[in-house]
Amino acid sequence: MKSVLIGDCRVDILPVVHGLVSEAEKVRSAYGGYEAYACALGIEGIQGIKNRADIEDDFGINELDIAYAKHMEAFGEVQIPSPSICELIDLCGADDLNVIPLDMNDEDFTELYCKTVKTMDFVKEHRHAKKGFRKRFDADTPEELALQWDAHVNKVKSYALLSGKREEYIASQIKDIARYRKSLLVVLEVERVDGVMGHLV
Hints:
Blueprint: E1 2-6, E2 9-16, H1 24-30, E3 36-39, H2 43-50, H3 63-72, H4 83-94, E4 100-101, H5 106-116, H6 119-123, H7 125-134, H8 142-153, H9 157-178, E5 183-189, H10 190-200
Parallel strand pairs: 2-5, 3-4, 3-5
Antiparallel strand pairs: 1-2
C-alpha cells in the first residue's frame, strides 16, 4: 500500500496484479473504513463488471492480454475480468457504494488512442504479442512479471506515451476526488502505481 495526503484526504493506493485470482484477497483485506473507493476503469468498464453475470462479453481481450495471461499463469489461476477489480466492485455493491471510475470513458479513450498510437504500431501489435508470448521473463514474483511485461509492451513508444497519459489522467481524477472526500482507497494495477504517484506527490 502506498499512501499520500492530498489536502485533507488520505489516499491509499493498493497495487494489484491484474488477472490473478489470488489478488482478490488483497482487496478483501484492505476494504472497509474508507469514505470512497476507486479503480482505474472507465464508467463503462465498471458497469460491465457489475452486470457481468447477465452479459456475454470478452471485456476487450486482445493478443497482448492473452500472452500476458499465459505468462502470469506461472503464479496461479488467471481470470478476466480482473478478480481484484471484481472483488472491489462486489464489496462496494453489497454496501450500496459506487466504485468511482478513475479512467477515461470509452469515447475519450478511443479518441486518445487514435491520436497517440501510430497506425503502424497498431498493425504490428500481432507481431509484438507473438514476441511477448515467446519471451522469457526472469520474474520471481507476479508483481515483477507485471512490471517486466509492461516494459515489453511499452518498448513501442506510442504505447508508452499512452500509458503515461493514462497515469496523468488517473492522478488528476484522484486529486479531484480528494477535494470532496476524507479518505479514498484506490485499487490500481501495479505497473501504473509509480507513474500515478509521481503526479500526486
